[in-house]
Write a structure and sequence with these properties.
Blueprint (H helix, E strand, L loop, with lengths): L2 H10 L7 E5 L5 H8 L9 E5 L8 H9 L6 E5 L8 H8 L2 H4 L9 E5 L7 H10 L10 E5 L6 H10 L2 E4 L1
Parallel strand pairs: 1-2, 2-3, 3-4, 4-5, 5-6
Helix pairs in contact: 1-2, 2-3, 4-6, 6-7
Length: 170
């Protein structure tokens, strides 16, 4: 679904069994705030797959706030960010323990998929994986897929393969 029709789609249907949403969003992410404000309407939602989202600047804060309201998510896919980069700040928040952030962001997250992210070196993912590994009240990242992320360091990838059950590099 594209961002122009996702709000209408969500308003039109009752979707208590909806397990995943895949949206080509662009800079318009108001729809995710709606999903986050009414999580009881989406109790089965486990996968969020976003394409063309702007993660830099002012777009990051509402996105992160919305994700805090969706703790049931187990899978997150981020593809082709509109600026080409996700930025370190998102991964810092994803790796932040409750002592610094108050609570884990996406505490049940087990799968992370990234595609066409020009700034991914692997070290930011290593930061997330190691921060969550064995920590209380948060799931381990057990599936990691990187596609067309050409700056991934072989050293970081080697370390990730020892910590994550399944790592796919495409």
């Amino acid at each position: 679904v594209d961002s122009a029709s996702i709000s209408l789609f969500l308003d039109t249907f009752s979707l208590p069994a909806l397990e995943g949403i895949s949206v080509h969003s662009g800079d318009d992410i108001h729809w995710i705030t709606r999903v986050a404000l009414y999580p009881e309407q989406f109790p089965s939602l486990r996968l969020l797959d976003l394409r063309n989202v702007n993660f830099s600047g002012a777009g990051l804060a509402p996105f992160v706030r919305a994700l805090y309201q969706l703790p049931q998510l187990t899978g997150l896919g981020l593809a082709q960010p509109s600026t080409g980069i996700i930025g370190a700040r998102f991964f810092d928040v994803l790796a932040a323990a409750p002592e610094s952030a108050g609570e884990w962001l996406l505490p049940r997250l087990e799968a992370l998929c990234l595609q066409s992210c020009a700034d991914i070196s692997g070290y930011e993912l290593l930061q997330v994986v190691t921060a969550r590994r064995g920590a209380a009240d948060v799931a381990n990242i057990s599936f990691l897929k990187l596609s067309e992320c050409f700056l991934v360091s072989s050293e970081a990838l080697d370390r990730l393969t020892t910590l994550v059950t399944t790592v796919r590099l495409l």
